Amino acid sequence: MTTIQISVQDDLIHFLGLEKIKKIMEDELFYQRFRLMESEIQSAMTNAKNVEWDKEFEKVREEAYKEYISKNKQ
């Protein structure tokens, strides 16, 4: 991990405070990392050969539903 320094306008620091600005930046960077991972997953799925994703997702959805039903019957 790398630490960076950025310039922030004084009025923003006064209005929001340093902790709020830090939180905003951390949240935005977390979101951008999530988008990057999502893009990589989409690319890998697109490049996968001989996989019918609709069938795979339906199979997992049905298994999850059966597990949900069995846990809620008890």
Proportion of residues in β-strands: under 5%
Largest sheet: none
Helix/strand-derived category reads: mainly alpha
Low-confidence stretches: none
Bulk shape: elongated
Query: Mean of residue pLDDT?
Result: 94
Strand count? 0
Radius of gyration: 22 Å
Helical fraction: over 70%
What does this structure look like?
The chain is mostly helical. The chain has one domain. 78% of the residues lie in helices and 0% in strands. The chain has 3 helices and no strands. The chain has helices at residues 10-16, 18-47, 53-73. Helix 1 (10-16) crosses helix 2 (18-47). The longest helix has 30 residues, at 18-47. The protein is elongated and about 55 Å long. The termini are far apart.
Q: What is the topological layout?
A:
Elements: H1 10-16, H2 18-47, H3 53-73
Helix pairs in contact: 1-2
